[in-house]
What does this fold into?
Amino acid sequence: MRMDVEDADAAIKEKAHVVIENVIRDAKEHLQDLQEKERAYCLFSEAEYIIQNIQWTSCKDFTVERGQQQIEEYMSTWEFHESWLHWSDYLQEEELKYSKRYHYRVRWSIPTCRKPIPRATACIYFIIEISKIKPPTLPVEVFFILESNKLIHRPGQCRVREKWLKDIIESKRILMDSITF
It folds into this structure.
């Protein structure tokens, strides 16, 4: 009788061992499948959303007009719907101890046939900085800020999103609608 119980225990342990091995094998296969899918998604995602930039001019070759042209060239790399229109302005030059900053404003809007003059626009402020202490052959430093935001963006380090402009315009529309004259 004791032999039967020991044999039964051994058989149960053997079956349990086989079940556990199968579960572990299946779990490993499932984990490998998930990792392969994630790798494939990341490769697709990276290929889909490459952050664009341009070759910015050197400090010695910089002019106000060249800065405006390069801002236009940089913005042409953005993935915006064709209905967006913009215009850019040179605003001012700012003299600092170790650099000069050139300020530009780009206004964005979506005019339509029904409303060719937009009720609201969204601005992006570009600053091109020319160093007085770095070698003049180095490229200019460029950064930009969206209206109503404090976050400083640098070309080539972030993907500009159409939604950012839509949010600015929508918040202005909501504000205008809440004011009665």
The mean pLDDT is 88. The longest strand covers residues 85-95. The helical segments are 2-48, 64-75, 162-178.
